[in-house]
Structures are given as C-alpha cells and as structure tokens.
Amino acid sequence: ETEFDEAERQLAEWEERGDKGGIRNFYEDFGKALEAVAPGLSVAQLRAGLKHYDSEVMERFRAAFKEMMGGVEFQPRAGNLIPILKKMLHSRAFKKRFKGLAIFFDEFGFTLEKAAYSKDILQGFMETICKNEPNVLFIGCIHKDFKSYADRFSKDDAAVMSARITQVDLLNEGIEEIIGAIVETDKEGETWKKEIAPKTGVFDQLLPPCKSLDLFPWIEDVDRIRQRVLEDIYGVHPMALACLLKLSSEIGSDARSTFTFFSGDVGGEKGSYAEFIQNAEITVGGGKLNLYTVDRLFTFFQKELSQKNPELRDRQRQFVNGFYASMDALRKAAEGELFGLQEDERIQVLKTILIYQLCQIPTSLENIQFGLYCLSKAEKKQIEAYLKDLVKKGAVFFRQQSKTYELAAGTGEDPYDLIERYLSDTKLHPKDTVAAFLEEAGGKLNLNFLEAKGYNLPFGEDKRFRMRFVRAKDLGPALWNEIRAEWEEYWTKPKSSFEGTLVYALCEDESEIKVAREAARTISDNNVVLAVPHSPQPFTETLLRVKACRYYLPPNEAEKISAQTESRLRDIFENPEDGYLPMLQRVLRDIMEGSGACWYWEGGKVLVDKPKQSHKPADMLCDELFKKRCRIKHPDLNLCHDEKWRTGKNTALKQAIGVLLSAEKVLIDNGNPDNHGEKRYLEKVLLKGAGALRRTGSEGVVTYFECETDPAKIHDDFPVLKELCERLAELNPGEALSVGPFLEEAKMPPYGAGGTPLMLSLAHVIRAYGERLIVYKDSTRMVEQPIRSYDDLIKIMSDPAAKVVFVVRDISQAQITLIDLIAKAIGAPPLKHGETRSLNSAFENLKQWWNGLPPVAKVIGLYEKDRQGRLSKLKDLMDGLTDSVDRFDFMLEQLPAVYMRGPVGDSLTEADAKAICDAFAEDVKLLNSGEQLACARVAEAVCEIYGTKGDMIECENVVTRWYTNLNPNQRNPLKYDQEDAAQFLTRLADQSVNFNTKIVKLLPKDYGFGPVADWSSLHIKDYVAKLKQAKAEIDKAKPVIYKPIVDEGRREVAESESVWVKIPDGATTLVFTDDGSDPRTSIRAQKATTNLNLSELLKGRPSVKIRIRAVDSEGNFSDDVNVELVSKERKYDLQIQSNMFGDQEATFKCPKDRMGLVAVLKSVIRYGVRTNLLSASEAQELEALLSDLSKGG
Predict the structure, then answer these.
(1) For the CA atoms of the chain, what is the radius of gyration?
(2) CATH of domain 1039-1131
(3) Helix crossing, 2-17 with 81-90: angle to 10°?
(4) Half-sphere exposure in the Cβ direction for 437 (13 Å, CA)
(5) In terms of C-beta density within 10 A (0-12 exposed, 13-18 middle, 19 or more buried), how is residue 563 classed?
(6) pTM of the predicted model, to two decimals?
(7) Can you name the residues that pair with 1127 across neighbouring β-strands?
(8) Mean predicted lDDT score pLDDT of the chain
(9) Looking at residue 534, what is its pLDDT?
(10) Helix (H) or strand (E) holding 35
(11) 488-507: string of b/e by CB count within 10 Å (b at 16+)?
(12) Where in the chain are the domains?
C-alpha cells in the first residue's frame, strides 16, 4: 500500500516544482506520457485512484513513469518509509481492519552483513516506529549474535541499535514437521510401496542410537522419531539430520540453512538434499536403503567450513584448521601411494569427525560408524581400519581416556588474526583507496578506455571513451572541468584521444548513491556519462583485507610466518571462489559491467538504465553524438585513433592518394589485389561507397574516372566528403574555405572522422576541382601552397594551427581558348585527343619558356624601336613571374592586359583571345630569335675590324685567314704583355672549339662581359673595341722577312740551263713546293739551306709550278714567290694525273707548229709503249712515219 502514497507524493512534488527546475517540467511530461500509455485517463483521475489504493491505477502510473523517464522503473524511496508507516498506522481504515503491524524480515543477518541499508533509516525506524508505536512488531532472523555484526557500525551506532532490540534464540522443537511438509514423502506411490517400504526394517537399527545420543530431545516417543524423522524425512540419516540442525544455527547463512537444504533454494547444489535425491540410487551395496550420511554435510557447508570464513568463532576455527591440518598430513603420507585422495574414503571419516566436533557429538568409533551408516560387521571393521591408518599417519589423534578421535592440531598463527592486526593499524592502509582498488582489482583489465563495441561493429569504427572511477563525494563541476581539460589535451593526439568519458560512481552505501544522483544534474558536457548504482557496491573492507594478505605474503613478508600459515593465507587471498582478491575483482567487474546502474548524461538526463551490456552506454552516447557518421563498411576508413595515415605506413592509402594527386588520369586497375589503394579506397570508398567517381572509359582491366564535385551526386554515406563539396560549391567569388577549422570540425561530433577519410576527402576535391582550386598558405592569399604529393597533405593534416585556405576559380570557354593559344605560342607539348589544356600546365610552360630564354634575348634594345614598347611591358610582367604569383590572375588578367587597352575581366571573347595570342605569338617568335640576333650583330661588328661586311660565316673566314697568315712569333700568346691579345690568340689556337663558340661565348667571357647569351645589356661596342685593339697589337708584332731572290712568273728553259733562287738577308732557309700548295702549311714542302737551282725540279717533266718562301731562324715566313718553269724539250709531253675518282687523265700543251705537233704525238707513242698499248715494233714504225713528217716540214 505504501507505493500509492509515494506515487501521490511524487506527483505533488512535481506539480509544485513546475518548470522552476530549469531542466524540464516533469509534471507536464508525466501528463503527456500518461496520455500515451492510457488514453482518456487524466492526471487528476489517476491521483484520485491512487488515494483509493487502486492497484490498476498504480500499474498505469508505473507505465507512465517508465515512459517519461526513458525506461527507468518507478521505485519508492526508502527515505519515505517512516512517514508512510506512520500515516498507515494512524489511518482509520487500518485500525478498523487490523490490531497492529508485524514485520518479518527473513535473513536480516545477510542485510546487516553486507551493510545493504541506510543507517539513519534503520535507526529512525527502530526509534520512531518500533519504540513509540504500541502496535508494531519487527522480527528479523540472524544466524549469530547481534554483537558479531558490530564491526559494521561505529561503536556508538552499535550501542544505540543494541538497546532497541531483544535477542531470542531459535529452537528446533517441531522442526521435523516443517521439514516433513517441505519434503512431502509420497508413501502411497509405487516406488515407496515396492522398493522402499519392504526395506524400512533398517530403521529399527537406527532408532536406539537416536535415543542414546538424544539426537532429538524434544521427541520422546521412539515411534514418532521413526515416523516423523526416518519416514517423513526419508533419505536422510538421523545423525545427518541432527548435525544439519546444529550446523544451521551455528555456522549457517542465508544460503545455507535447514530450509534451503531441503527446499532446493540453492538450486540443487552439491551436498544438498535436492541434489542427493535427484542423483542417488535407492539402494546401495548389500541392498540397504541409500541414506544421506553425515560426511556429505561438509560439501553442503563447504563455504562456511573454509579457513577463510571470518565468521567462524575461535573454537570453530580451531576445528576447521585441525581438519585441514589432518588433510595435509594425509596428503603427505599418501604421496607414495598408488591412488591419490580423490576418492579416498578416509576423507569421509575426517569430514565426519569435523562435523561431530562442531556439533559437540563425541567422536567415538561407534558414533563415527553410526554417522557413516555402517550396519554390517564388515562395514564397521572398514571404518575402524581407516581410523587406525589415520592415527598411524598422524592425521588423527586417538585420546585413550575418552576413547575418541581428534583432528590434527593446526600450527602457526591464525591468518585471520594477522589480517585483523593489519586492519587495526590504519598507518598501513593505502592513502588513495580508489587508486589501490583499481590497482589490485584491475589486473589485466583495460581501465583506460571502453570501446563502443556495438556502435563500432557495423562500419568498422574504433570510438572509445575514457573510464574514470570516482567516489560520490568527488563528483561535481570541478570534476567535469577536469575531464573537459583532459579531453582537450589529448584531442589532437589520435593514439591517446577519446570521444568522451564514462564516470563510474563508487558508492558503498545508500547515502553515497543519493549524493551521486544529485551530482548527475550538474553534468555540463554532452560527451560525459555518469553511472550511479542502484545498490551499494562496497569495496573498502575487502580491499584492506587484500592489502593485508599482500602485507604478510612474499615478497613483502612484513613478518615471518610459517609455511602452513603462508599457504592458508595465500588460499584466503587467491581462492577463485571466495578469496579476497577474486572477490575484489568481482566487485570491480560488476561496477564496470554497469548493468546494476542508471546512466545519466548532460543535465542529469537518463541515457539508459540497467544496460545488459557493459558497452551499451558508450554505444548509445555515440548514437547521440555522431549523427553524421560515415556509413561505408571498411576495415580502416572509419578508424579515428589510427595513425598509419600520418606515419606513411598505410601503403594502400598512399597509393590511392598518389593516383588522385599526381596520376595523369584517375584510374582503377582491376588486375590489382583488393588491398591495393586503387581497390581498397578508390573503388570501395569513392566509387561504390560515396558515388564520387564518374566513369569516363576503360582499356582492358583498367577503368578511368573523373572526380565528382557536385555534392548532390555524392552519397550521404560519406558525409565528410559531401559536406566539403557543399562548402566549396557555396563559396561566393572572393570567399575562401579555411581548411584547418573544417578539419577540426570534421573530427568533432556529429562527424567524428579520423585522418584516413579526411586525407581521402581532401585529395578527392583537389583532383576534382583541378586548377580551379587554388590552395594558399594563409588567408592573405599572397603565397600558394601547392599540394602535389601525399607528404604535402600530411603537413596540412598534422598541423593543428594550419592556416591553409581553399579558393575556387571558374574559367570561361574564351579563357580556355586563351590558355590553349598561349601554350601553343610558346611551343607547349600538343594535347592528346579529347584532352583540355589546363591553366596550371600552361602557366608552368610559360614559366619554363621565359626562364629558358637567354638573358640577351630579354634586352629590349636589341630589337627594332617600333617593337620595343610592347616587348618592354611583356618583359616587366614576365620578370615578376614566381611561384607566389596568382596563376589565375596572371594568365587571365595581367598577360592579356599587355595586349589590350584595358582590363580584360570575364568579358573576354573568343575573338579577343585570338587577337591577344596572335600578338603574343609574334613577340614570342621575336624573343626566341633574340640570341641569334645578338650573335649576328657581334659578327657584323667583328667583320668591320677586318675591313669587310658579312655574317658569322664571313666573320669566321676573314678571322681564320688573318690568323693563318700570322708568323709563329705573332701567334705565340706569351710574347704579348697585353692580356686581351694573348687571350685572343689562345682562343683562336684552340682547335677543340668551333669559331662561333669562341666569338660569342669564350672571348666575351674572357674580356669580362660574359657569354653573349648571358648579357642583360648590349656590350657589342665595348667587346669589338677590345678585339680591335688586340688585333692591332698582334699585327704590330709581325717581323720583316724578305722574299727569296728570283724572277717570278713563267719561263721556258732548256735542260742544261740553270735558274737559281737566293736566300735573302735575314733568312736562313728556303721552303718550297712543286705542286702549287703553300709551303708554309703543306706536308709536301721541301727545305733548302743554300741557294736553290730550280732547273733540277724540271728534269724529266715538261713543266713545274714552284712556290717558295724564305724562313728566318725563329720560323717567321716571308711572302711567297711563284715560279713556273717549262722545259723547252718536253713542253709538249703528256702530263698524266689521277682525278678525284682515281682515273688517270692526260693533258698537254697545244702545239703552235709542225714540230710541236710531232713532239705531242711522240709523247703519246711513248705512253702507249709504257702502258703496253703499243709494242716496240709498232712504236718504231710510227716514229719512222713521224720522222718523215718532220722532214717533210
């Protein structure tokens, strides 16, 4: 009934608060929820029904409450218990129907044990209700003296509570009837009648010990024992039943009592009656009925009979320690035996002795035999033999005086005494209990991050949340600020970053839970969630016991303890079932599981209550935060804590971005494996996932694409790319997109994108927009930031302070024509079929052309005056061409403006483009010829020095001829003090370099002007002046050598006549040739150191042409003398010579008279004889005829 008042009280509180709370109007929201779950029922009608305790109305209230609170169930607050009870006790309706109120609290000891209550409420209940109200009775069942729970309270609290209660011992009288009602033995069934009843005679053998041992003192009638105990509670040996009743009251617990033993509330666990009946055969060896014996109770009470049980009294602990000491002794003695202790019946004896000692039953041989259901002599002898063996092995001690058996005595200090000693010394306790709790219970658990596994699974993400474990008192605005600062610190470091924080409130009692719930209202960030448990989760006491164990165990060993004590202490510490450390670990796992908590987020709103999975809160928070997540399933696209994209270890991503940024065409080679970048990212993400690639063609297994810029054609499954394209498409002229802030925004909710999708998105738009997308280093747009490689992108992505901006420029068709014609004018490579000239490529070609021009070509004074004006403007513009220039403005505004009267702008037409480029092409052609023109001007000027006119060829001829005629003394550079003359001669003597190179490159450089091509201004006059002065110096150094003394010209001489040539004064030698070549250079030249008789050269020949020079001692030559001698006797002889093809040709001097003719013919006859064309006799006949002819003349 109290639920109704609590519900009405809650509604009244909400109605009074209204919308003053600031977060929401709960009363109004409840009305909406009620309309949804119970249409037609108003809040006023519902409240009237609550006042009349209408259970149906209460259910509708619950449903509306759950709907309004997002799935949280309505739970009456324990703090309202006292006023609710007072109101009920004083109501007329209650007094009319009842005398008073009796509250029965079964297993109240369990609540005290776990401190699962509010101290203030419990004390207030005892004081206000139980003490002051005359018609209230509270009965709680505990398994030990109330003082045993005193360590759960302070001394003052324990004293107050002890004064409010009356302790009454529980007795077993009549218990057999209750147990019989639970067991309900079916004596009318066929099994009982056919298999059990015929063998119940065994009960007669069990009755005498029941009376002699007084196992059931409240039952005096033996027949009643048989009926109520042996038959109605069939299957349990009477000694086992007696011990069960004793143990239940002495060491039992909420889970191990007489009733749970029989009722099966423990789920038929080992050692229970339910487990025995279900699995045991009806009869055992010898045909006797199978009964539950005393030793089996050890299994049922195994937890309570553990050395680690802190609730054991000293004497009980002594018996339990003795049992384990006996087990140790038996184990050591059994090490050499063939079979181990697994099925050793001696252990049954030890268990029976322990049970008897705890129940204060004499451990005599007879009693042990009775408890183990020994009826035959053989069975009794076997037990006796076991006892003797145990005594012999030191596992059991036989006391002669009393004829009883005792378990071995434990040695060393009790581990629990050690633990209590540690607990009492607060100086040894950890200062930071939360840190110690996480350190001890954390183990191999990941206490740093919790992954949103359910959220991450569909699309391969790695969203995660920082885990914080905080005491309730430390929750509040200061903590939220600390969490926010931590998140901001790590946000730019993918390996350490996280999407938000899950705070686990550590609440060890109800008051801390209340504090945590209040703190939830102050949560200020939408990525922070607080888990508040519904029930206390105490850990401090267990933590201290864990620390106590560590304090005494190796390697710490604060005190020297025995090996047996160490073994027991380690078992207490580590036992998987009830060891302190596993217990502490289970507490932490329960906290981390979060299934027993309500999860609050921003403003105290409920995110989820009692989630079934530990990662459910993280999943739900991700759903709230990341509304625009990438929905392309991919192994690594959606990872935001992966840094392979930054370190370059993601080879596939580098391959994909390489194609986007630098490939001639965007392509996917289907012959590549699936892990190749073209398949992994271009195909799976951009093509199939985002629809951002448009197919343009294919060649074999290679498919070609263009990147899409229209955001309407990009799928919503890749929201970051779509958003980037939308923002670029929405830019107005003159506007720019700041890349850094966009990247930061994309990493935040609602996108939550990592480095990989952002790298891919940036590369995509750079390729898609091409040259229309201008990337600047900052918003001033003064310096471009070219992005041509993966590393260029990394620099932008990795710099949180990047100021890079994107600007989009559009190009008209006329401007496209202009760009193409400009590129053609400077000789750019021709386009392939279907290819469009890009502004960037044309710009680069233009820059390369201008940089490739020699400086002299850029000297405007080199050209005709009528061309210099426009060329000067073009040069001024081109000289400012650097990487920092705005390419669009340069190509589409500044360059056309040189050829137009005013700004071009967007009004450029096709005709304008053609006119501009025609004029530009003329200037390009002229500039390309600039170096050649400069060289021609130099050649003309040099020719003038030698008194002639002409081009570079004529210049070479005249200079070479002049140099050849120089004598050795003149050609020696070392003879001149003037450096220009020496350099001139040195260059002319170098046969490894052609003349053009000497004149326009080497000599200008030697004279300090540099090569003609590198002139930035014209130095022709100065250069030629230096050459002229050098020539004059060389000419002045020529010595005077007289010609050989002889008459020049042609003369006829007889063979006996002499023609002498004399060596002139100053000369020492004559050099001459007889083939008409210059003796100065001819390889056939001959020398004479004395006067020469030229007639000697004519012998045997009709004529000879001789060229002669005189030479002095230093090798200087005179001018040449030409002399032709004609033999009077042989002047008509044939002259045989070979032409250029190797054929012999004959020449002769035409005769002027008959005698001359006869001489020619005789010469022909002699040629015929020499060449065997005529025989000697034939020749004689012919000569005879000629002689006659001669005579006749």
Answers:
(1) 61
(2) 2.60.40
(3) 120
(4) 23
(5) exposed
(6) 0.55
(7) 1053
(8) 87
(9) 95
(10) helix 26-37
(11) eeebeebeebbbbbbbbbbb
(12) 2-163, 182-408, 416-625, 644-808, 813-928, 932-1036, 1039-1131, 1132-1193
